[in-house]
Specification:
The protein contains 14 helices and 17 strands. It is globular and about 80 Å long. The strands form three sheets. It has a nine-stranded mixed beta sheet, with helices on both faces. A hairpin with a 7-residue loop joins strand 15 and strand 16. It folds into two domains: about 170 residues, NAD(P)-binding Rossmann-like Domain (Rossmann fold), CATH 3.40.50.720; about 260 residues, Dihydrodipicolinate Reductase, domain 2 (2-Layer Sandwich). With about 475 residues, the protein is an alpha/beta fold. The longest helix has 21 residues. The structure holds 6-O-phosphono-beta-D-glucopyranose.
């Protein structure tokens, strides 16, 4: 892959959780792998008057915890931290932007990456001030963290402001799920092998299930989460992007626009929801007190920062249909939730059973051929086949052909590491284009509107469970069930 040229990375929201838990650990891993150019500079910005040493001390523990003992080497971390600086900046202060411009002026030819990891309300103002301070030139790129807006209208307003300063080719809308190695492996599996393509359609696939389940709760992000909820936090972006990768047509090349054109077509082919289908085919849930891994945990309404009158969902499940030639009639079941029984992200492709059974089924009656694509906690691709059970009867049992992609001794880059290096290289393939994000907002709009109009409390589920009963019922009605592998 193309070497990364020295760059300046400026992180707005440098004192936030994302910087300490994802961005800086990702850059450290890139440094350890020799991918980060030694001349790269990272400038973290925050409102607090911290000074560089205090800033570095403040991120150390979180970064160490995130990386874990296996990857954290204190000496090497300090070496890496040599390229990090801190500047106090108030996003509303022209003077502070002036100081930032002065600081960067010694290397005007470098790629400048502005990572906006702040509340999206600040994006427009930050972009304007970058432009006024002469920092929005042709060699500048801006990275926008999700959620980009709250609905189609607010997303459009933010995008219009950002685009009044930066060209689409300079804008990197991040969805870190696209940076996960397993997601790129899914692209490789689908488009680097000829054997799956003839099977990949309504004639062979009975249904597709995509699950992102988390054991964690709101983790000190109560204010953010309560204003966001599972639909906006996970479904409109991560789950829909996974659905696109499963369902898209082969792109002409891995060029950014070719890939994004195909993903956009999938979103545009999704059957629009009506108020009736929202009621029938979507489920909103909220966790109650329960146990996760044997530990008692509070219900959502008792989490810090959550008001007792909150009506925010922490779980969503839905049935989607893609109205195109390939997928007509195939249900796509999507679900995500916090405080569930497992920490798993997985795509399950369920194939039809053979049209005529000549063998009696022993173990695993009702099991069909299945392709599991697990993204987390470990990266595995498994193909479930039926084989003969040992013995003198012709009984069948399910067996799995598995490919453990993490156990091959290859180093896998983390999602943020990969994506940040892609920004530095100028590769937008794994970033979301404005029309894609808009189409996704448009598709979820009737869901948000119907839920608002109903004003019903989300369905309860116990923390540590697999979600509300209504989500189980959603599939049971279709004669199916969620494949629980966690
Ligand atoms: C983020 C959401 O985008 O993704 C979080 O805001 C969520 O709420 C996280 O926990 C999950 O990402 P991952 O990579 O840990 O599965």
């Amino acid at each position: 892959m193309e070497a990364v040229q020295p760059f300046d990375l400026v992180i707005f929201g440098g004192t936030g959780d994302l910087a300490a838990r994802k961005l800086l650990p990702g850059l450290y891993q890139s440094f350890m792998a020799g991918g980060l150019p030694p001349e790269a500079r990272i400038i973290a910005l925050g409102r607090k008057d911290l000074g560089r040493d205090n800033y570095l001390a403040s991120i150390l523990d979180k970064s160490r915890t995130k990386l874990g003992d296996e990857f954290f080497d204190e000496g090497r971390w300090h070496e890496f931290a040599g390229c990090i600086d801190y500047q106090q900046l108030d996003a509303g202060s022209d003077d502070d932007f002036g100081r930032l411009a002065e600081r960067l002026q010694d290397a005007p030819e470098r790629t400048r990456i502005f990572y906006l990891s702040t509340s999206p309300d600040l994006f427009a103002g930050i972009c304007q001030r970058l432009a006024q301070s002469g920092l929005a030139g042709a060699n500048s790129r801006v990275v926008l963290e999700k959620p980009l807006g709250h609905d189609l209208k607010s997303a459009d307003e933010i995008n219009a402001c950002v685009e009044s300063v930066f060209d689409e080719k300079q804008i990197y809308r991040i969805d870190h799920y696209l940076g996960k190695e397993a997601v790129q492996n899914l692209l490789a599996l689908r488009f680097g092998n000829a054997i799956f393509e003839p099977l990949w359609s309504h004639g062979n696939i009975r249904d597709v299930q995509i699950t992102i389940a988390e054991k964690i709760g709101v983790e000190g992000r109560g204010d953010f989460y309560d204003a966001t909820g599972a639909l906006r936090d996970m479904l409109q972006n991560h789950l829909m992007q996974l659905l696109c990768i499963v369902a898209m047509e082969p792109p002409i090349s891995m060029n950014a626009d070719n890939v994004r054109d195909e993903k956009l077509k999938v979103i545009r082919s999704l059957e629009p929801f009506t108020p009736e289908t929202v009621i029938a085919n979507t489920v909103r849930g909220r966790y109650q007190a329960g146990q996760v891994d044997g530990d008692k945990v509070p219900g959502y309404l008792d989490e810090p920062g959550i008001g007792s009158d909150s009506n925010t969902e922490t779980f969503v499940a839905l049935k989607a249909r893609i109205n195109n030639w390939r997928w007509s009639g195939v249900p796509f079941y999507l679900r995500t939730g916090k405080r569930m029984h497992g920490q798993v992200a997985e795509i399950v492709i369920n194939f039809f059973s053979p049209p005529h059974a000549i063998f009696p089924v022993g173990e695993g009656a009702g099991v069909t051929n299945r392709l599991y694509l697990r993204l987390q906690p470990n990266e595995v691709i498994e193909l479930q086949l039926m084989a003969k059970q040992a013995g003198d009867q012709n009984l069948l049992k399910p067996v799995k052909l598995d490919l453990d992609l993490t156990g091959r001794g290859e180093r896998h880059s983390g999602a943020y590491e990969r994506l940040l290096m892609d920004v530095a290289r100028g590769n937008q393939t794994l970033f979301v284009r404005r029309d894609e994000a808009n189409a996704a907002w448009q598709w979820v709009t009737p869901i948000m509107k119907t839920w608002d109009a109903l004003d019903k409390a989300p369905e309860p589920y116990a923390a540590g469970s697999s979600g509300p009963d209504a989500a189980i019922e959603l599939l049971r009605r279709d004669g199916r069930s969620w494949i629980e592998n966690a």
